[in-house]
């Protein structure tokens, strides 16, 4: 994965994911690693990408987004785009943690239940995350990440419900 390809991939991630040191799975196999809080370096080639470069590329990309020729309006995000990103996100999480399927909610809910004497289910844990994303989405500027993560969590809630309630 070359610098330009990684920069393009990173432009699609929210600032929180960049600051959380997220990298697409292919970046790791190509030798890219975070060296500090805002710089990614390829250990094989020495190329570097700073958080500033990512933000600049993102702003330039927004200026050149496709426009609907009939209305001169920017093309809108389709539901299928958000759902595909949600699917990719679930796979990326597993890859980041070197597991076949990253499913940490069950352990988190069990710990919460033990600490607070509650009886939350894994499904309820995922649904909590759905509502968290929904409450974030209602305020401020549009952030596709809220909808992508919300779709991911809703899918994971459905998976948990199928296991729990069959």
Rg, Cα atoms, Å: 18 Å
Domain unit count: 2
Mean pLDDT, rounded to whole units?
75
**SSE arrangement, N to C:** HHHEEEHHHHH
User: What is the number of helical segments per DSSP (H or I, 4+ residues)?
Assistant: 8
> Considering DSSP H and I runs of 4 or more, what fraction of the residues is helical?
55-70%
Please describe the biggest sheet, giving its number of strands, its sense, and whether it closes into a barrel.
3 strands, antiparallel
Low-confidence stretches: none
Could you explain how this protein is built, in words?
The structure is a single chain. By secondary structure, this protein is mainly alpha-helical. The model has no long low-confidence stretch (mean pLDDT 75). Helix 1 packs across helix 4 (51-63) and helix 7 (122-137) packs antiparallel against helix 8 (144-165). The longest helix is centred in the last third of the chain and has 22 residues, at 144-165. The termini are far apart. The protein is built from 8 helices and 3 strands. The protein folds into 2 domains: 1-71, no CATH class; 77-166, no CATH class. The chain has a 3-stranded antiparallel beta sheet.
Primary descriptors:
166 residues; mainly alpha; 2 domains; 3-stranded antiparallel β-sheet; 8 helices
Nutshell version of this structure?
By secondary structure, the chain is mainly alpha-helical.
Describe the SSE topology.
Blueprint lengths: L2 H9 L3 H5 L5 H5 L2 E5 L2 E4 L5 E3 H13 L15 H18 L8 H12 L5 H16 L6 H22 L1
Antiparallel strand pairs: 1-2, 2-3
């Amino acid at each position: 994965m070359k610098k330009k390809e990684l920069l393009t991939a990173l432009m699609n991630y929210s600032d929180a994911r960049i600051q959380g040191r997220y990298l697409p799975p292919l970046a790791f196999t190509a030798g890219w690693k975070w060296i500090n809080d805002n710089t990614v370096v390829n250990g094989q080639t020495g190329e570097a990408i700073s958080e500033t470069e990512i933000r600049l590329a993102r702003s330039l990309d927004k200026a050149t987004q496709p426009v609907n020729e009939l209305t001169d309006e920017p093309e809108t995000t389709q539901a299928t785009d958000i759902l595909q990103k949600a699917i990719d996100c679930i796979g990326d999480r597993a890859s980041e943690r070197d597991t076949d399927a990253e499913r940490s909610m069950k352990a988190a809910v069990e710990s919460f239940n033990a600490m607070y004497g509650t009886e939350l289910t894994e499904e309820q844990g995922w649904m909590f995350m759905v509502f968290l994303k929904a409450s974030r989405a209602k305020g401020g500027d549009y952030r596709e990440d809220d909808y992508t993560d919300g779709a991911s969590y809703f899918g994971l809630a459905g998976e948990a419900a199928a296991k729990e309630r069959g």
